[in-house]
Amino acid sequence: MRKRVLTVDDSKTMRDMVSFTLKGAGFDVVEAEDGAKALDLLAGTAVDAIITDINMPNMDGVTLVQRLRAQPKFKSTPILILTTEGSEDKKQQGRNAGATGWIVKPFAPDKLLQVLNKVCP
Amino acid sequence: MSSTTSTPPDFERFRATFFEECAEILPELDERLSSLHAGEVDAETLNAIFRAVHSIKAGAAAFNFGPLVEFAHVFEALLDKLRDDRIQHSEQVFNVIVRAGDVLAELVEAARAGSEVPRAFGADVAAELKELLAGTQDGAAQAPPVIPQSLSTQERGLRNYRIVFEPHSELFRHANEPLLIIRELKRLGDLNVECISSNLPNLASLDPEDAYLSFIFHLSTSAPYASLAEVFEFVDQDCLLKIEVLDGADEEEALEDSETLDDENEPKSAGPSPAGTGARIGIPSAVQTSKGATSIRVDLARVDRLVNMVGELVITQAMLAQQLSDQGGGQRHQWVQGSEELAAHTRELQECVMAIRMQPVRSVFARMPRLVREIATKLDKKVKLVTSGDQTEVDKTVIEELTDPITHMIRNAIDHGVEDADTRLAAGKPKEATIELSAAQRAGNILITIADDGAGIDRQKVLQSAIAKGIIREDAKLSDDEIHNLIFAPGFSTASVVTEVSGRGVGMDVVRRNIAGLGGRIQIHSIPGKGTRFTLVIPLTLAVLDGMLVAVGKEKYILPLASIVESIRPDQRQVRTVTGGAQVVAVRGEFIRLIPLHRILNVPGAILEPWKALVVVIETENGSKAGLVVDELIGQQQVVVKSLAENSEAVSGISGATILGNGRVALILDIEGVCGMPDRAAPLESCSEFQIPDCDNNPAMRAAQTSTNRPRASQPEEMRAGA
Amino acid sequence: MNAALAAQIANTAPSAASSAAAGVKQFISFRIGEEEYAIDIMAVREIKGWTETTTLPNQPEHILGVMNLRGTIVPVFDLRRRFGMGLTEAAKSHVVIIVAVLDRIVGMLVDAVSDILTVDSSEIRPVPEMDRSISADFLAGIVSVNESMVVILALEELFSRTGNEKSLQEADEPQSLQ
Predict the structure, then answer these.
(1) Disulfide: which of B265, B567, B603, C117 matches C27 by Cβ 3.0-4.6 Å?
(2) How many angstroms separate the Cα of C88 from the Cα of each of A61, B698, C82?
């Protein structure tokens, strides 16, 4: 069965990058522009993993991770956060909120797949 | 880690997405920066600005746009500190940020055009940004993102490791899994797993989310140490981890490129595998939709095609309806009902489709604050731009055509209209000039106003210049309106030296042509000393028109319904001839100039006497009225406007064409144009200005002569015969 | 004629492109009165029987009006008039050749379409300095076919958008009304 990944990022370019890479590797992809929309989407769609950016309007990535981990449904869903080089504090915040792992932007497609495969059962 | 990808990158299309996104981000950023500049400083604005720059940086890094990335990085760093209140808010800071925004926009444009950026470009702003950063609590900005070097990925000989791995419950809370760790280790080589379960309590007291198991791995691998470390990169804070190299001989080598992992420390400082240089990732061309998204992107070509097809549908439906009514009613009343339903559905479909292409003018307006800043700075004038109605919606094709005219008129306003500070103060005006840019919808048109509180148009100067250029004769008598309109004459410019700002030979004549190309016109209202107001009037929906089909001789024409006030069949007594040969008709005390269409349009076989024909009273943009003499009204009809200009030269008095139900082409009259066309039998100078010497010297009559500012009815008030 | 010729045109057009390289050109020739003219086959989009056009007001007489070409408004020019040889009494037997020139599509009213000519570029000679009624600007060359002379027209010059297109002998005043 195909695995489904949710990508959350306010940048369409980023979402497209992730989506294309994942789809090419056989994943199903759903997208959301910010944390709030992600939660809405997840209320009705099951996913096997979540990749989220940190800086987004309406609800940032760290808050999204916190909210997700607070729900039993998402306790063991792998969540990867997208960080930029040099934003250690954000990475740590994400970690503390419960993120499974991180990917540094900009990333190579196969790096993305490698990390995702690492955390996805 | 090599960067060979399994799918071939389609990065051209992908770049386009990035620049499209920038094209959306930059104007919004500009708006936010304007707010900042205007003193509206709040967390939301700062966050939004940060995110905008952050997004641009992230994308730029993916495409390796060096100068852009570097600049954006410093900019972002400062914005990050600013939004966290780690930098003092001050006018100086905001000024730098605003300028940085401009530099960023330029760099994006350069990246898009693929042009070289001079090394010094933006260097001054960047330096200021760095300076401000240096003054903050945690010191200078971190180094810009260097495309990371690959860590040693060279394969060594086979090595044996002994790894002790004791996960803490924290590990599970991050949705990490020892099983996945094991899977990864297996990929590196030969793995032997020993599981220690001595900590497992009995089932009753087992907490399923706690960690009780620990592992000892024996791994035989030739993979570099970095790969091994990477397996644990996400979990190393949540476990006890010890990696030992077992082969004595290579131990030193191993220690060289290894880093001790300590579960108490921060993760190793050198990142794991390189992020890859110049990631190029393509995107499919299909439309991306997602359940959560509230909008989708669609190729404009597809929308255009849709609009065209619906237009054709309207015509076909009209044809069917006509043929059906030609057949007569009676038994076929079911068909009639069906036909009417079809008409209603088609109309609604049309409205929906037209709405797809509508966009708020905000995207055009958003570029203006920066423009005003630039020009005002260049000309050393203080100018404030106030916009309103930017959510007014206009067809997308119109939006694109609006930027240049508006830009040019604002340039002109600042250059020629706005006085310098001293002059303004002396005139009792505030030092800072105000330019108002507004958009509004009115009766099927969109009105865009550019108004300034400057010196107004210097009529004398304009006149002199026009005479000097031979545009008008020396003794010509012109009304104020006509003098204003001289600025649209080709080659006209009162500036003795066309300034660098307004120059480039663009000219108001080009502006007018642009607007005319959209089917619109420009009105000027100017008061010396007070200011000038330009109003662009552009028809709202380019493609569909509510029209009245009229017959003149054997020709048929469409009159835009919105321009029609009423239609009358006058008595002979109501029609009078005035000096010059023109005819007027008296309607409720008002004298309305008659325009015999058959003469204007050279149509043979028409009814010559107005009292035997029909007079359709129309109202022009400026409120003045005229009576078009036609043979008869055939009926109201919604028509799809087809472009005449696509293949034909412009024809005076005709704004477009449509295809009637019978497949024949009918021309759509340009009301304004028709009013201005010469009538051989009665040459007149202009529509709004004519004398009626044989009229009674009656103040009431006089008053009736001047333009009435009656709002134009969107439906004709009455269609009746006789006054 | 039309259907067969039209089919022939449809079939030859692609090969015209390939033979262009070899210096061979193809034209559609047509007749106006006693004269034969030809135009580049690549410009020809369609050949239609004459249908009534809608008159454009105040235009020179050689602009017959506009017609509906499957939803596009296309102007139709009376070539006879354009060449100063009088008005065409348009009737069902006449033909309108739809051509694509520069950025527009226009229709040319002619008496009849004659043939497809395949001509080597070397055979095309410049128009001699004779007393011709048609301005040399509009003529791209002349070629001899079966003993008769066919004048090749320069479509781009003929239909350039230079404001109001004047007729050639004298500037026509639009017909004034009595």
Answers:
(1) C117
(2) 76, 56, 10
Is the Cβ of C125 closer than 8 Å to some Cβ of chain B? Answer: no
Residue linked to tokens 């249908």:
C51
Alpha-carbon distance B281 to B64, whole Å?
A: 12
Question: Measured between beta carbons, which residues in chain C are less than 8 angstroms from residue B649?
Answer: 161, 163-165
B712 within 8 A of B444, measured Cβ to Cβ: no
Q: Taking a C-beta distance cutoff of 8 angstroms, is the pair B474, B467 a contact?
A: yes
Among B4, B5, B290, select the one facing A32 at the smallest CB separation.
Answer: B290
In the predicted model, what is the mean pLDDT of residues B439-445?
78
Q: What is the pLDDT of residue B617?
A: 93
- The token duo for B100 is 């940085």
Write the DSSP assignment of C123-137 as a string of letters. G-BPPPS---SS-GG
Predicted confidence band of residue C15 (pLDDT cuts 50, 70, 90): very low
pLDDT for B276 equals 31
pLDDT tens, position by position, B561-584:
888 999 999 999 989 888 777 899
Mutate to test the interface with A, among B15, B57, B149, B281 (most CBs of A within 10 A): B281
A57 touches chain B (CB under 8 A): yes
Q: What structural domains does chain A harbor?
A: 4-119 (3.40.50.2300)
Q: Calculate the CA dihedral of residues B239, B245, B246, B249 and round it to 10 degrees.
A: -170
**Considering only alpha carbons, which residue of chain B is nearest residue A42?**
B292
CA dist., res. B124 & res. B96, Å (int): 10
Would you call B174 an interface residue with chain A, using a CB distance cutoff of 8 Å?
yes
Angle at B427 between CA B423 and CA B431, to 5 degrees: 60
ipTM over 0.90: no
Which chains are adjacent to chain B, needing at least 3 Cβ pairs under 8 Å?
A, C
B425: number of Cβ within 10 Å = 12
CB contact under 8 A, B55 and A11: yes
- Contacts A–B by Cβ distance under 8 A: 160
